[in-house]
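[audit] Reproducing an earlier prediction to check determinism. Same input, same settings, fresh worker. If the C-alpha coordinates differ from the archived copy the diff job will pick it up downstream; this log only records the rerun itself.
[audit] input (313 residues):
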Amino acid sequence: MANERLMQRLNGTDRIEGALRGAIVALGNFDGFHFGHQAVAGKALSWARDEGRPTIIATFDPHPVRFFKPDLPPFRLTSLDQRQRLFADAGASAMLAFEFNAGLAGTTAEDFVTELLVERFGAAGVVTGADFTFGKGAKGNIDVLREVGAAHGLKSEAVRPISDSDDVISSSRIRAALKEGHCEEANRLLTRPFAIQGEVIHGDKNGREFGFPTANIDIGQYLRPKYGIYAVKGRLPDGRVLNGAASLGVRPMFDPPKELLEPYFFDFSEDLYGQTIEVELHHFLRGEEKFDDLEALKVQMAKDCDRARALLD
Protein backbone atom coordinates (compact mmCIF):
# COMPACT_ATOMS: atom_id res chain seq x y z
CA MET A 1 0.00 0.00 0.00
CA ALA A 2 2.95 2.31 -0.58
CA ASN A 3 2.16 4.02 -3.90
CA GLU A 4 -0.32 6.48 -2.38
CA ARG A 5 2.68 8.15 -0.68
CA LEU A 6 4.75 8.33 -3.87
CA MET A 7 2.31 10.33 -5.97
CA GLN A 8 1.53 13.95 -5.18
CA ARG A 9 -1.98 14.77 -3.93
CA LEU A 10 -3.12 18.24 -4.97
CA ASN A 11 -5.93 20.21 -3.32
CA GLY A 12 -8.65 21.63 -5.57
CA THR A 13 -8.36 25.02 -3.82
CA ASP A 14 -4.66 25.45 -4.63
CA ARG A 15 -3.11 26.96 -7.75
CA ILE A 16 -0.94 24.52 -9.68
CA GLU A 17 2.52 25.80 -10.53
CA GLY A 18 5.68 24.33 -11.96
CA ALA A 19 6.01 21.07 -13.85
CA LEU A 20 2.38 20.01 -13.33
CA ARG A 21 1.00 23.10 -15.05
CA GLY A 22 -0.05 22.32 -18.63
CA ALA A 23 -1.26 18.84 -17.71
CA ILE A 24 -3.94 16.71 -19.29
CA VAL A 25 -6.65 16.29 -16.63
CA ALA A 26 -8.96 13.28 -16.35
CA LEU A 27 -12.05 14.69 -14.64
CA GLY A 28 -14.70 12.60 -12.89
CA ASN A 29 -15.85 11.19 -9.57
CA PHE A 30 -13.92 7.96 -10.15
CA ASP A 31 -15.24 6.28 -6.99
CA GLY A 32 -14.26 2.65 -7.49
CA PHE A 33 -12.00 3.47 -10.47
CA HIS A 34 -13.67 0.64 -12.37
CA PHE A 35 -13.15 -0.49 -15.96
CA GLY A 36 -15.12 2.48 -17.36
CA HIS A 37 -13.22 5.02 -15.25
CA GLN A 38 -9.96 3.46 -16.34
CA ALA A 39 -10.90 4.11 -19.97
CA VAL A 40 -11.26 7.84 -19.22
CA ALA A 41 -7.92 7.90 -17.38
CA GLY A 42 -6.31 5.83 -20.14
CA LYS A 43 -7.37 8.39 -22.78
CA ALA A 44 -5.84 11.20 -20.71
CA LEU A 45 -2.63 9.23 -20.14
CA SER A 46 -2.14 8.42 -23.84
CA TRP A 47 -2.91 12.03 -24.86
CA ALA A 48 -0.40 13.32 -22.29
CA ARG A 49 2.26 10.87 -23.48
CA ASP A 50 1.77 11.96 -27.09
CA GLU A 51 2.35 15.61 -26.15
CA GLY A 52 4.97 15.05 -23.45
CA ARG A 53 2.72 16.39 -20.69
CA PRO A 54 1.95 15.26 -17.14
CA THR A 55 -1.39 13.60 -16.35
CA ILE A 56 -3.55 14.60 -13.40
CA ILE A 57 -6.58 12.53 -12.35
CA ALA A 58 -9.14 14.71 -10.56
CA THR A 59 -11.74 13.33 -8.14
CA PHE A 60 -14.30 14.66 -5.65
CA ASP A 61 -14.49 13.91 -1.93
CA PRO A 62 -17.01 13.81 -0.49
CA HIS A 63 -18.95 12.55 -3.51
CA PRO A 64 -21.29 15.30 -4.80
CA VAL A 65 -24.31 13.07 -4.08
CA ARG A 66 -23.24 12.96 -0.41
CA PHE A 67 -23.24 16.79 -0.29
CA PHE A 68 -26.74 17.13 -1.75
CA LYS A 69 -28.21 14.11 0.08
CA PRO A 70 -26.33 13.85 3.40
CA ASP A 71 -28.78 11.31 4.84
CA LEU A 72 -28.14 8.64 2.18
CA PRO A 73 -26.72 5.37 3.53
CA PRO A 74 -22.96 4.94 2.96
CA PHE A 75 -22.14 4.11 -0.67
CA ARG A 76 -18.41 4.75 -1.10
CA LEU A 77 -16.42 2.10 -3.01
CA THR A 78 -12.95 3.60 -2.45
CA SER A 79 -11.33 5.96 0.03
CA LEU A 80 -9.18 8.85 -1.19
CA ASP A 81 -6.05 6.93 -0.15
CA GLN A 82 -7.14 3.94 -2.21
CA ARG A 83 -7.90 6.17 -5.20
CA GLN A 84 -4.50 7.80 -4.89
CA ARG A 85 -2.81 4.41 -5.06
CA LEU A 86 -4.96 3.27 -7.99
CA PHE A 87 -4.27 6.50 -9.91
CA ALA A 88 -0.55 6.10 -9.26
CA ASP A 89 -0.64 2.49 -10.45
CA ALA A 90 -2.40 3.68 -13.63
CA GLY A 91 0.53 6.02 -14.33
CA ALA A 92 -0.81 9.45 -13.33
CA SER A 93 1.60 12.19 -12.31
CA ALA A 94 -0.69 13.48 -9.54
CA MET A 95 -4.16 13.24 -8.01
CA LEU A 96 -6.27 16.39 -7.70
CA ALA A 97 -8.86 16.14 -4.91
CA PHE A 98 -11.78 18.58 -4.90
CA GLU A 99 -13.54 18.98 -1.56
CA PHE A 100 -17.17 19.12 -2.64
CA ASN A 101 -18.68 21.90 -0.53
CA ALA A 102 -21.17 24.78 -0.90
CA GLY A 103 -18.59 26.91 -2.70
CA LEU A 104 -17.91 24.31 -5.34
CA ALA A 105 -21.61 23.44 -5.65
CA GLY A 106 -22.33 27.11 -6.38
CA THR A 107 -19.61 27.50 -9.03
CA THR A 108 -21.13 27.88 -12.51
CA ALA A 109 -20.01 25.50 -15.24
CA GLU A 110 -18.41 28.41 -17.13
CA ASP A 111 -16.43 29.54 -14.05
CA PHE A 112 -15.38 25.97 -13.36
CA VAL A 113 -13.81 25.86 -16.83
CA THR A 114 -12.24 29.33 -16.90
CA GLU A 115 -11.35 30.00 -13.27
CA LEU A 116 -10.45 26.50 -12.12
CA LEU A 117 -9.35 24.35 -15.06
CA VAL A 118 -7.70 27.13 -17.07
CA GLU A 119 -6.54 29.75 -14.55
CA ARG A 120 -6.01 27.82 -11.29
CA PHE A 121 -4.76 24.53 -12.71
CA GLY A 122 -3.36 25.59 -16.08
CA ALA A 123 -4.79 22.49 -17.79
CA ALA A 124 -3.97 22.03 -21.47
CA GLY A 125 -6.63 19.36 -21.99
CA VAL A 126 -9.47 17.64 -20.16
CA VAL A 127 -10.93 14.15 -20.59
CA THR A 128 -14.31 13.20 -19.09
CA GLY A 129 -16.87 10.47 -19.47
CA ALA A 130 -19.47 11.39 -22.10
CA ASP A 131 -22.17 11.57 -19.41
CA PHE A 132 -20.16 13.53 -16.81
CA THR A 133 -21.77 16.76 -15.52
CA PHE A 134 -20.32 19.55 -13.40
CA GLY A 135 -20.98 23.09 -12.17
CA LYS A 136 -23.98 24.70 -10.49
CA GLY A 137 -27.16 22.78 -11.27
CA ALA A 138 -25.05 20.18 -13.13
CA LYS A 139 -25.29 22.46 -16.19
CA GLY A 140 -21.76 21.65 -17.38
CA ASN A 141 -21.06 18.80 -19.80
CA ILE A 142 -18.65 17.96 -22.61
CA ASP A 143 -20.34 20.51 -24.90
CA VAL A 144 -19.78 23.32 -22.37
CA LEU A 145 -16.19 22.17 -21.86
CA ARG A 146 -15.52 22.32 -25.59
CA GLU A 147 -17.30 25.61 -26.20
CA VAL A 148 -15.99 27.58 -23.21
CA GLY A 149 -12.59 25.91 -23.15
CA ALA A 150 -11.86 26.56 -26.83
CA ALA A 151 -11.81 30.31 -26.25
CA HIS A 152 -9.10 29.80 -23.62
CA GLY A 153 -6.94 27.23 -25.40
CA LEU A 154 -8.34 24.30 -23.42
CA LYS A 155 -9.01 21.17 -25.46
CA SER A 156 -11.52 18.53 -24.37
CA GLU A 157 -12.26 14.90 -25.13
CA ALA A 158 -15.09 12.62 -24.01
CA VAL A 159 -15.00 8.84 -23.61
CA ARG A 160 -18.19 6.90 -24.27
CA PRO A 161 -19.48 4.56 -21.56
CA ILE A 162 -17.90 1.11 -21.62
CA SER A 163 -20.29 -1.85 -21.76
CA ASP A 164 -19.97 -5.59 -21.35
CA SER A 165 -22.41 -8.19 -22.64
CA ASP A 166 -24.97 -7.20 -19.98
CA ASP A 167 -24.97 -3.41 -19.62
CA VAL A 168 -22.91 -0.25 -19.13
CA ILE A 169 -20.17 -0.71 -16.52
CA SER A 170 -20.99 1.72 -13.70
CA SER A 171 -20.40 2.30 -10.01
CA SER A 172 -24.12 1.82 -9.31
CA ARG A 173 -24.03 -1.60 -10.98
CA ILE A 174 -21.03 -2.58 -8.83
CA ARG A 175 -22.79 -1.38 -5.68
CA ALA A 176 -25.87 -3.45 -6.56
CA ALA A 177 -23.72 -6.57 -7.07
CA LEU A 178 -22.02 -6.12 -3.70
CA LYS A 179 -25.35 -5.60 -1.91
CA GLU A 180 -26.49 -8.94 -3.36
CA GLY A 181 -23.31 -10.72 -2.27
CA HIS A 182 -22.09 -11.14 -5.86
CA CYS A 183 -18.42 -10.45 -5.14
CA GLU A 184 -17.06 -12.07 -8.28
CA GLU A 185 -19.31 -9.89 -10.50
CA ALA A 186 -18.37 -6.69 -8.66
CA ASN A 187 -14.68 -7.58 -8.77
CA ARG A 188 -14.84 -8.33 -12.50
CA LEU A 189 -16.28 -4.87 -13.19
CA LEU A 190 -13.79 -3.20 -10.83
CA THR A 191 -10.93 -5.21 -12.40
CA ARG A 192 -9.75 -6.05 -8.85
CA PRO A 193 -11.33 -7.15 -5.55
CA PHE A 194 -13.52 -4.68 -3.66
CA ALA A 195 -11.48 -3.77 -0.57
CA ILE A 196 -12.21 -2.01 2.72
CA GLN A 197 -9.26 -0.17 4.20
CA GLY A 198 -9.19 0.79 7.86
CA GLU A 199 -7.36 0.82 11.15
CA VAL A 200 -7.48 -2.34 13.27
CA ILE A 201 -9.33 -1.49 16.48
CA HIS A 202 -9.90 -3.33 19.76
CA GLY A 203 -13.02 -5.49 19.80
CA ASP A 204 -14.81 -7.65 22.36
CA LYS A 205 -12.27 -10.52 22.01
CA ASN A 206 -15.12 -13.01 21.31
CA GLY A 207 -13.28 -14.60 18.39
CA ARG A 208 -10.11 -15.07 20.44
CA GLU A 209 -12.07 -17.17 22.98
CA PHE A 210 -13.21 -19.50 20.13
CA GLY A 211 -9.73 -19.85 18.69
CA PHE A 212 -10.52 -17.44 15.80
CA PRO A 213 -8.88 -14.12 16.79
CA THR A 214 -10.09 -11.39 14.43
CA ALA A 215 -8.79 -7.99 13.34
CA ASN A 216 -11.73 -5.62 13.80
CA ILE A 217 -12.28 -2.75 11.36
CA ASP A 218 -14.92 0.00 11.40
CA ILE A 219 -16.65 0.01 7.98
CA GLY A 220 -16.96 3.82 8.08
CA GLN A 221 -18.30 5.44 4.90
CA TYR A 222 -17.90 2.36 2.70
CA LEU A 223 -20.90 0.81 0.99
CA ARG A 224 -22.37 -2.01 3.06
CA PRO A 225 -22.07 -5.23 1.05
CA LYS A 226 -24.47 -8.04 1.91
CA TYR A 227 -24.04 -8.99 5.55
CA GLY A 228 -22.46 -12.38 6.04
CA ILE A 229 -19.27 -14.42 5.90
CA TYR A 230 -16.67 -13.90 3.18
CA ALA A 231 -13.46 -15.48 1.94
CA VAL A 232 -10.99 -12.59 2.08
CA LYS A 233 -7.40 -11.55 1.56
CA GLY A 234 -5.73 -9.06 3.87
CA ARG A 235 -3.01 -6.69 2.69
CA LEU A 236 -0.67 -5.49 5.43
CA PRO A 237 1.33 -2.22 5.41
CA ASP A 238 4.56 -4.19 4.82
CA GLY A 239 3.14 -5.73 1.62
CA ARG A 240 2.32 -9.19 2.97
CA VAL A 241 -0.93 -10.78 1.76
CA LEU A 242 -2.88 -13.08 4.09
CA ASN A 243 -5.77 -15.43 3.32
CA GLY A 244 -8.70 -15.52 5.70
CA ALA A 245 -12.41 -15.58 6.41
CA ALA A 246 -14.33 -12.54 7.63
CA SER A 247 -17.64 -11.67 9.19
CA LEU A 248 -19.18 -8.47 7.84
CA GLY A 249 -22.31 -7.29 9.64
CA VAL A 250 -23.86 -6.86 13.07
CA ARG A 251 -22.98 -10.24 14.67
CA PRO A 252 -26.45 -11.53 15.64
CA MET A 253 -25.01 -13.92 18.27
CA PHE A 254 -23.67 -11.08 20.42
CA ASP A 255 -25.23 -8.17 22.34
CA PRO A 256 -25.30 -5.35 21.69
CA PRO A 257 -25.26 -5.64 17.88
CA LYS A 258 -22.20 -3.86 16.50
CA GLU A 259 -21.48 -3.35 12.80
CA LEU A 260 -17.94 -4.46 12.01
CA LEU A 261 -15.72 -6.14 9.47
CA GLU A 262 -13.93 -8.92 11.37
CA PRO A 263 -11.32 -10.83 9.34
CA TYR A 264 -9.65 -13.93 10.79
CA PHE A 265 -6.37 -14.60 8.99
CA PHE A 266 -5.21 -18.20 8.68
CA ASP A 267 -1.93 -19.26 10.31
CA PHE A 268 -1.27 -15.74 11.59
CA SER A 269 -0.88 -14.60 15.18
CA GLU A 270 0.79 -11.18 15.09
CA ASP A 271 -0.64 -8.07 16.76
CA LEU A 272 -2.23 -5.75 14.16
CA TYR A 273 -3.78 -3.17 16.54
CA GLY A 274 -3.37 0.38 15.27
CA GLN A 275 -2.19 -0.72 11.83
CA THR A 276 -4.09 0.26 8.67
CA ILE A 277 -4.86 -2.81 6.59
CA GLU A 278 -6.92 -3.52 3.50
CA VAL A 279 -9.40 -6.42 3.40
CA GLU A 280 -10.43 -7.69 -0.03
CA LEU A 281 -13.77 -9.49 -0.39
CA HIS A 282 -13.27 -12.42 -2.79
CA HIS A 283 -16.22 -14.79 -2.24
CA PHE A 284 -19.51 -14.59 -0.32
CA LEU A 285 -19.91 -17.80 1.72
CA ARG A 286 -23.22 -17.39 3.57
CA GLY A 287 -25.50 -14.86 5.21
CA GLU A 288 -25.46 -13.95 8.90
CA GLU A 289 -27.14 -16.51 11.14
CA LYS A 290 -28.15 -16.84 14.79
CA PHE A 291 -27.12 -20.27 16.12
CA ASP A 292 -28.62 -22.25 19.01
CA ASP A 293 -25.45 -21.89 21.05
CA LEU A 294 -21.83 -20.79 20.83
CA GLU A 295 -20.61 -24.35 20.20
CA ALA A 296 -22.75 -24.54 17.05
CA LEU A 297 -21.31 -21.20 15.95
CA LYS A 298 -17.77 -22.48 16.54
CA VAL A 299 -18.43 -25.59 14.42
CA GLN A 300 -19.82 -23.44 11.58
CA MET A 301 -16.85 -21.04 11.78
CA ALA A 302 -14.49 -23.97 11.28
CA LYS A 303 -16.49 -25.04 8.19
CA ASP A 304 -16.42 -21.45 6.87
CA CYS A 305 -12.65 -21.33 7.23
CA ASP A 306 -12.20 -24.65 5.43
CA ARG A 307 -14.35 -23.45 2.54
CA ALA A 308 -12.56 -20.09 2.37
CA ARG A 309 -9.16 -21.82 2.30
CA ALA A 310 -10.31 -24.03 -0.57
CA LEU A 311 -11.70 -21.10 -2.58
CA LEU A 312 -8.65 -18.88 -2.05
CA ASP A 313 -6.18 -21.67 -2.82
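[audit] rerun output stored. Observation attached for the diff report: The chain has a mean pLDDT of 93.
[audit] end
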